[in-house]
């Protein structure tokens, strides 16, 4: 009987067992106090590190289809092997850092000598090429600034130089070691850093002579070292002042380039470690949201000035009725995010704080609207499935509401909706936060003839990479064995492809009337549609009726107009406003619910009595995306029974508010309107 053929996963398991035995033997050998064998031990440690990395790469390429026979709990077994390999890699890395000082005492190796000579040659080439042309000169200046800005990170590639052995750091907070090789520290303790590594774990020594690994985020250079660094930076800045024009031209550009390169490098590192699938990238839409208010709803809700700058392009008053004149847009629809299927989960080493979908109007090359975010719900029993609009008692938060609306007046033939699936994560090893794109999908709203597409349920294929990359797979397993030719095989493969299910719906008469009151281009939650339309009517009264002339650009005294856009960017405050609005609306008569004047008056009363005091409360922490602690603290303040606002509570000594700012109660048309 021929021997049973091993599967690829079983082969990897056996190789991991063999590596583990070698690592255990190496650790026992390194514990012996024999310095003469340390160099050889370090060499074997590095060889085992390379072997672990090769096995990790092989494991990431495996799929269940590669197995010659069915394997139960395949994904769980694969994740367990990833954890084992990462543990072995961490042990070897810790051992290499402990052995590194002995390697330095024995003298630099030939590879280090070659690296130093290459760095010296590169420095000479940089100095000789300063006068070649402007672009190379800007690049040299950027390299020098990058070295100066990196500070502590300029030595992260290995152990510190002999001359830097006396560099001391102060512990910012206490850290308790959880694994073998970690060093427990106390807040304020003085440590001596012996070696720095790119993964954020530094080898440090305390005053008792104990050595171990400490996260670099817990350390800060001592004040004496800071003063020396500042003196060096001042000397460099005096030399750089000789070319002010060149400096001013590059500072605005290279900061953005430096940030982008850093994020891409971090993603490459996580992908190489197996922490994220190969199709994941830094979130494109999240980066746009961090740049300012240009892609937020608070910017797009504002009126848009015409080309003459003397009137409004999207805000008109009907002279017969005295109401805002509604105007249709090229695209005006509602949609429902239904579910996401077969989304690859991040690997070990990352803690996911939020799973969400960001959507906006897109023409293939440019974001045309604000970016709206809907948070997905996740079930650990189905780790590859995301769902939206969960069932719950009471009012559904707008952040979880999958019902959205979209308006856009772009004439582009490629106009559509861009969906970006993203996760906000925190690295367990370093505590660093970040936003990753798990893939994207694009729904084109017009066909080749220019006719609108049918409003029905759409199953959109999720692509890897960014919207500006082409043919990037979410996972390498889909095309590793070639494309199947059989119908049954194609059906099985189609079920494994990541999909986003979206349902497009026509707008009913009531919602269409409200949508026509909004700006030409905006995306948002359907649950806030009534509030947005009422705000636009109040805005039209102030800008088109109450102003003396259309040329008057004086400040308008209105707390509602000035502060509501800020509330619009904070979903929890919008939910509090919706809750108070719903309670007040339930007490109105049926005829009053259709009376615009009654609704505008109720809008001002409810807003000033519920949300406005919370917005400027000193007790309210600033919003922080995907921070559970901050979100819980804000929810306790918002829905606390003591927050029932009245004149007595506002003037009470127990009620504290931020320092008064004139911008809280005045609306500046020139700075707020879209130009």
UniProtKB/TrEMBL annotation:
SMART domains: SH3. Gene3D superfamilies: SH3 Domains (2.30.30.40). One of its GO terms (cellular component) is cytoplasm. PROSITE patterns: SH3 (PS50002). SUPFAM superfamilies: SH3-domain. GO terms for biological process: protein localization involved in establishment of planar polarity. This is Uncharacterized protein. It comes from Cirrhinus molitorella (mud carp).
């Amino acid at each position: 009987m021929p021997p049973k053929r091993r599967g690829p996963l079983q082969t990897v398991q056996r190789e991991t067992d063999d590596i583990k035995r070698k690592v255990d033997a190496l650790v026992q050998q390194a514990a012996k106090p024999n310095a003469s064998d340390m160099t050889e031990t370090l060499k074997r440690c590095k060889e085992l590190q390379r072997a672990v990395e090769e096995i990790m790469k092989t494991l990431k390429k495996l799929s269940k289809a590669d197995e010659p026979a069915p394997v139960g709990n395949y994904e769980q077994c694969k994740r367990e092997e990833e954890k084992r390999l990462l543990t072995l890699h961490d042990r070897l890395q810790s051992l290499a850092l402990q052995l590194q000082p002995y390697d330095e005492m024995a003298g630099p190796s030939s590879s280090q000598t070659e690296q130093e000579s290459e760095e010296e040659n590169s420095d000479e080439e940089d100095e000789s090429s300063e006068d070649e042309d402007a672009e190379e000169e800007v690049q040299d200046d950027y390299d020098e600034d990058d070295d100066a800005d990196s500070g502590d990170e300029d030595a992260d590639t290995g152990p510190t130089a002999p001359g830097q052995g006396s560099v001391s750091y102060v512990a910012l907070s206490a850290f308790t070691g959880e694994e073998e090789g970690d060093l427990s520290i106390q807040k304020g303790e003085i440590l001596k850093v012996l070696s720095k590594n790119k993964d954020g774990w530094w080898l440090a020594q305390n005053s008792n002579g104990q050595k171990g690994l400490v996260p670099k985020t817990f350390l800060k250079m001592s004040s004496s070292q800071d003063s020396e660094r500042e003196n060096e930076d001042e000397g460099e800045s005096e030399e750089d002042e000789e070319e002010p024009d060149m400096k001013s031209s590059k500072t605005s550009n290279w900061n953005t380039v430096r940030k982008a390169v850093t994020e891409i490098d971090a993603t490459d590192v996580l992908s190489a470690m197996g922490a994220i699938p190969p199709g994941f990238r830094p979130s494109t839409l999240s980066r746009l949201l961090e740049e300012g208010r240009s892609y937020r709803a608070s910017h797009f809700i504002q009126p848009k000035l015409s080309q003459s700058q003397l009137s409004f392009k999207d805000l008109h008053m009907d002279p017969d009725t005295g109401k805002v004149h509604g105007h249709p847009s090229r695209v005006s629809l509602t949609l429902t995010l239904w579910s996401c299927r077969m989304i690859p989960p991040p690997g070990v080493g990352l803690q996911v704080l939020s799973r969400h979908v960001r959507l906006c109007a897109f023409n293939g090359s440019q974001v045309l609207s604000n970016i709206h975010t809907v948070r997905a719900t996740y079930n650990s029993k189905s780790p590859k499935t995301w769902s939206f609009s969960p069932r719950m008692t009471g009012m559904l938060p707008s952040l979880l509401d999958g019902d959205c609306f979209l308006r856009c007046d772009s004439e582009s033939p490629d106009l559509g909706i861009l969906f970006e699936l993203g996760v906000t994560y925190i690295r367990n090893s370093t505590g660093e936060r970040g936003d990753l794109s798990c893939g994207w999908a694009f729904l084109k709203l017009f066909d080749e003839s220019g006719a609108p597409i049918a409003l029905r349920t759409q199953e959109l294929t999720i692509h890897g990479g960014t919207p500006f990359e082409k043919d990037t797979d979410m996972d390498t397993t889909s095309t590793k064995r070639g494309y199947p030719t059989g119908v049954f095989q194609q059906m099985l493969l189609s079920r494994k492809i990541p999909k986003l299910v979206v349902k497009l719906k026509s707008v009913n008469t009531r919602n269409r009337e409200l949508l026509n009151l909004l700006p030409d281009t905006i995306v948002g939650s359907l649950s806030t549609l009534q509030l947005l339309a009422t705000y636009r009517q109040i805005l039209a009264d102030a800008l088109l009726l109450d102003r003396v002339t259309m040329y008057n650009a004086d400040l308008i005294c209105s707390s509602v107009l000035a502060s509501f856009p800020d509330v619009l960017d904070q979903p929890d405050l919008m939910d509090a406003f919706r809750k108070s609005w719903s309670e007040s609306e339930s007490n109105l008569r049926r005829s009053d619910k259709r009376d615009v004047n009654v609704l505008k008056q109720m809008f001002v009363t409810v807003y000033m009595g519920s949300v406005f005091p919370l917005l400027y409360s000193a007790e309210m922490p600033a919003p922080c995306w995907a921070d559970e602690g901050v979100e819980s603290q804000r929810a306790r303040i918002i829905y606390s029974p003591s927050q029932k606002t009245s004149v007595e509570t506002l003037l009470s000594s127990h009620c504290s508010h931020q320092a008064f700012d004139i911008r809280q109660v005045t609306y500046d048309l020139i700075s707020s309107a879209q130009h």
